[in-house]
């Protein structure tokens, strides 16, 4: 009896069936059929590595599905990821030079449209650079020649795993089969791939969900499976493109904990793109701020978020950034839009007189009082770490109210709700502010 949708054709007087053509996007299903045929012919999983599609060959389409995977029999030693490239896409140009060592995580933060995802696309092989090179260990992933041609490895040979906001699991495969897919597609024996996949499920606390399909898993569980699948393929580098953005607060916190606790038996460089400073604080050894396609600040995470160099980074870290000129006593003098002067002095560190400098402090570290009974509203010369202001905006803040003044609109002051009530905060109210030098960090601007 013929199968549904099969057609009859005559061949030398006999009738045989002809299978309908398959859609090219059914590569995952095709690959498993090829593997099944090989096992039936007692070839094991060898057909995956052969080239003849009718005998279980792995076509380029199947290789693309295993993107970020590599033959795990003799994996090369992981090494430093070095990127020094420029590229253009849709009128936007990115010029980036950075490096990530094996076992190190670099968090790249920046506003929308700054080029973060473009950077990952260049490394993963989805976008060719217009100049420069991408190297991973002793291999060159992409390089632009002098004659304009690009030498680059195909995506499936880069051994780079890319994980985005969506898990993108194969819907017809179980959690175990999803994780085992990468190693199996690169030639690992089925039993070995399943054993490794079970180990990954146990590491991520998902052993009891091994037989479930993606639709039977929660969003957090799907993302865990996706990360396990990326690591099971044993990549030489891991790229994370805001992997927690689509998760709720509690699930995202759990995912950060899971990733942070993963053992580093095979250290690889990890590049994490995120908007959330919590991701950088918990997971990254270093952080880089990317704006308009350029890295404007890079260094240890505590330094980048503790003393940001740009207003965006300051807003990201939740601190005030005041830029000005160094004074004779090592303080920073800031001139507001209306000409109001503010001198900020830190307990440690000083800047050269006349040098461009900045001061950073938390909005919650400032004490606010009525101008008539608090610190002096004005003086000549100004008293360090004391200033006055007229309220122009009152905004909601965690646990209280955020105050913005006309004299220094770029600086915010947070006060508790009880203090806001006692101050009788209203628009045009005159307030005096003071901050301890130990809460101020001053630094010269390079």
TrEMBL record:
Basic residues biased stretches: 15-26, 34-60
Residue span of region Disordered: 15-60
Protein name: Molybdenum ABC transporter ATP-binding protein
Single GO molecular function: ATP binding
Pfam family name, one: ABC_tran
Record domain ABC transporter: where: 80-317
Alphabetical UniProt keywords: ATP-binding, Nucleotide-binding, Transport
PROSITE patterns from the UniProt entry: ABC_TRANSPORTER_1, ABC_TRANSPORTER_2
Superkingdom of the source species: Bacteria
Organism: Agromyces badenianii
Keyword set includes ATP-binding: yes
Coiled coil: none
Keyword presence, ATP-binding: yes
